[in-house]
Write a structure and sequence with these properties.
The protein has no helices and 19 strands.
Amino acid sequence: FIHTIFQDSEGFVWIGTETGLDRYDGVSVQSYARRFHMPLKGAVQSIAESAPGRLVLGTSWGAFCYNVRTNHIQPFDFGVQGIDVRAVAVDKNGLLYFGTDKGLYRMNKSNESGIKRLPVRIAAYPVVVFVKNNEEQVFAVGEHTLMRLSPGGFMPEALQIPAIKSAVFSDGRIYLGTIAGLYSFDIK
């Protein structure tokens, strides 16, 4: 079962599955689930790249930073048990965003020592997906909410539409896939 597909800056395609992480190199698919020194817990639901060779993985059991070059994986500590990280995003300034079942979290750009810092919860509503526009601004999309995260703000826009399940940015608009059809939101 495939939850997400992501292409990194080197052109590799990463596949988040129910049982772990796979990589497609243009020729074959390799499973990474058994390569880690510690087990990757939960289904991989989202993938982002915080720097070349460094993936952020959102899973049903939390979030992990994976250094592809050293094959080192390390969990993020949210300070709460049983957090479901459904979406991850990195903005143009290197801020990491985590969309979880317990709300929206933000963390400064990760490095080897910085991963031990706790992500900070900035909103209580659960996030379904993140969307980036052409200027690399990040928007958090909840079931009935849209919020521009970068730059500034954090003022949620309540949307009076059916439950949102997916979203994509195109031509200055965010298209929202809902349980009742497709909606369009002009970000201006």
